[in-house]
Write a structure and sequence with these properties.
Blueprint: H1 2-20, E1 26-34, H2 41-51, E2 61-67, E3 70-73, E4 78-80, E5 99-101, E6 105-112
Parallel strand pairs: 1-2
Antiparallel strand pairs: 1-6, 3-4, 3-5
Helix pairs in contact: 1-2
The structure holds zinc ion.
């Protein structure tokens, strides 16, 4: 499962961060996961349950912020949320190759004690 290795990497980064700040435990871990990141939030939650034991994140609450895809239309000079996978501007119908968000896979916030 791809998400398990992703989560192990996240937990390693989170644990190192907590140790660097003299914390023993992480109480909340917030991730930003883009729709295009190739990672499924439900699978991430399962991976967290499987991998967090024995790490400073064992008792942490996992929050996942899903980041929707936003494209830029050069013609209309504005961002839009595509309704299909063709990234078609809802106003002018032009296809956009300029994806401004949706690729994220990052730690947004760590709460440590
Ligand atoms: Zn447009």
């Amino acid at each position: 499962m791809h998400e398990l290795s992703v989560m192990q990497e996240i937990l390693t980064i989170a644990s190192e961060h907590a140790q660097a700040h003299g914390a023993r435990q992480i109480c909340r871990l917030t991730l930003r996961v883009g729709e295009l990141s190739g990672v499924c939030p439900d699978a991430l939650r399962l991976a967290f349950a499987a991998a967090a034991g024995g790490t400073p994140t064992a008792a942490a609450e996992l929050l996942i912020d899903s980041v929707p895809v936003r494209c830029w239309c050069a013609h209309c000079q504005r961002e839009f949320a595509p309704s299909t996978s063709f990234y078609e501007c809802p106003d002018c119908g032009q296809l956009s190759a300029d994806v401004r968000q949706g690729w994220e896979l990052e730690i947004a916030q760590l709460e440590i004690v």
